Each structure stands twice: as structure tokens, then as C-alpha cells.
Amino acid sequence: MIYRALTIAGSDSGGGAGIQADLKTFQELGTFGMSVITALTAQNTQGVHGVYPQSIEAVEAQLEAVLSDIGVDAVKTGMLFNAEIIEAVSKCLKKYGVERIVVDPVMVAKGGHALLHPEAVEAVRKHLIPLSMVITPNIPEAEVIIGEEGISSLADMKEAAKKIYNLGAKNVVLKGGHLSEEESTDVLYDGNEFTYFPVQRIQTKHTHGTGCTFASAIAAGLAKGLSVVEATKVAKEFITCAIEESLELGKGIGPTNHSAYRLRQGS
Ligand SMILES: Nc1ncnc2c1ncn2[C@@H]1O[C@H](COP(=O)(O)OP(=O)(O)OP(=O)(O)O)[C@@H](O)[C@H]1O
Ligand SMILES: Cc1ncc(CO)c(N)n1
Do you know which InterPro entries this protein is assigned to (predicted)? Predict the structure, then answer.
């Protein structure tokens, strides 16, 4: 059985986040990875040094090429950069009836560089969220989406997850990596109940691309036919292993280790 997974995201020349992180994750989790590149970034462990968005024509042509021929079992979206790209991507995913869509609503890189135009947030709400089977905001992204600041506890996270669910996402995984607590709990809300994914915070500065890696691991699970809860559980194990064995590369925030999960499974 071949499981087809597609990432629609930005390229990270440093290899730790974006398209590169997604393809490595897809491969490690036994899926066939494909990509639609929305923007090039000149990026390393020290930050984003340039962003070069692709034309709408280039984005649409890549999508059409993949979807009209190979098809997909699941899609992950990452950096989409502007409202026009968001609209083109949403339109095409709708046209081909793709349902297993994981939306990582990437907005700002860890170094503070904008990866989404602020005026495109409305397009995320209007076009992308209603299409998503799972959306994986971190806390700052959740605050922008709901237009409220101050998410600072598990109770606040649960409230925010409900509000994002009400915007049309079928499942919300609100990531706790940005809370300053000992434990980093992610909260999954499916409209009925909450599932908690607590993990002891790992002391490392090398967390470049954690969000991309986690979301693409969920997409890989969905491509293989796992439920959202099962896919999130595996993705959590995958990202935890990757952070525990993160790589001291470059002078800044190094990438996580995408091979760690598979090597620990002994396969
Ligand atoms: N230090 C840590 N120890 C353990 N788990 C972590 C740590 N940092 C992040 N995580 C986990 O990694 C996953 C990604 O979360 P995070 O909040 O870092 O994403 P993000 O901010 O969107 O990442 P990115 O900056 O790559 O977009 C989540 O499951 C989160 O709980
Ligand atoms: C291309 C790209 N996508 C997403 C992120 C968020 O980590 C990043 N740093 N770079």
C-alpha cells in the first residue's frame, strides 16, 4: 500500500522547517511525500534572511500537476504567505474534494520574521479553517485567529480551542509549547471532548521546525488511515523523539532530528 502525503508550504534552505521538514517526516513515517512550494525562504538556524513568494500561477500549476495525476491521501499546509495564495490553495483543494487536510497556520518564524501578511489572517479564517480536518495553532497563532490575547493556562487554551472549532475546523490541536510551564500540554478538541497530550518540557534550544514537523506527522498518520486522535498521538511521540535528539547545527536554533523516532522503533 502506498500512502500519498502532500505538503503545501514554504521552502527552508536550512532544512529544519517548512517543505524540507515535512518531506523528511513523511518519509520517516512511511508515506510518499510530495510538495507544492508557496515561497522560498533564505533561512538558517539564525533566522530568515529573505522571503521570495511564488506566483499564483506557479502555486496553481504545482497543485494541478499533483492532484490531477497522482492524487493525495492527506495534505498538510504550512507557510502560505498571502491571501492570494491561501485562496488559490483552498479553491484547488475544494475542487479535488480533498478532506484530510492538516492546517498549520504558520504566521511568524521563531526569530520573529513574518511568514504571513497580517492582512491575510482573514483569509485563513474564511477559507482555510473551514477546510481543515485538523488545525494546529501554537498559542500566539491561536490568539491572532480568535483576536484575543492572554492565553496563559490550560483553561484558556480550552476556551480558545472551542472558539477556533466554532470557526469551522473539525479538530483543533492547540499546542502548549509556548506556555512557560514545566509540562508542555497540547489540547485536542473535536467539538465534543478534549484529549490531552502532556509531555515533560525538554531542555534544549534546538527546536527549529517543531511546528512543521508535528503537523506533517499528523498528516502522515491521516494518510495511513489513522483517526485524528491516533495520528496526533503518534505525531506527539515523533516530535518528542525529534526534540530529545535535536541537532546542534549552525550558530543559532538548530533543527530537530527526524530520524530519531524510526531509529528508536528499531526499524
Ligand atoms: N521544549 C519542548 N519540549 C517538549 N515538547 C515541545 C517543546 N517545544 C515544543 N514542543 C512540542 O512540539 C510541538 C510543536 O509545538 P510548538 O509550540 O513549538 O510549535 P510552533 O511554535 O508552531 O513551532 P514553529 O516555530 O516551528 O512554527 C508541540 O507538540 C509542542 O508541545
Ligand atoms: C518555510 C518555513 N515554514 C515554517 C516555519 C515555521 O517554523 C519556518 N521557520 N520556515
Answer: HMP/HMP-P_kinase_dom, PM/HMP-P_kinase-1, Ribokinase-like
Indicate if the pLDDT at residue 105 is higher than 90: yes
**Separation of CA 50 and ligand 1 centre (Å):** 23
Ligand 2 contact via 256 beta carbon (within 6 Å): no
User: CA-CA distance, 108 to 117, in Å (whole number)?
Assistant: 10
The predicted-structure confidence for 111-129, as pLDDT tens digits, reads as follows 889 999 999 999 999 999 9
- Domains identified in the chain, total number: 1
The 3-state DSSP class for residue 147 equals coil
Range of the domain at 238: 4-259
Closest approach atom of ligand 1 to CA 186:
31
Quick check: 72 and 34 in contact, CB under 8 A?
yes
CA 80/CA 8 separation, integer angstroms: 8
How far apart CA 167 and CA 145 sit, in angstroms, is 9
Do the beta carbons of residue 80 and residue 41 sit within 8 Å?
Answer: no
d(CA 49, CA 115): 12
CATH number for the domain that contains residue 76: 3.40.1190.20
Residue 58 to residue 169: CA distance in whole angstroms = 27
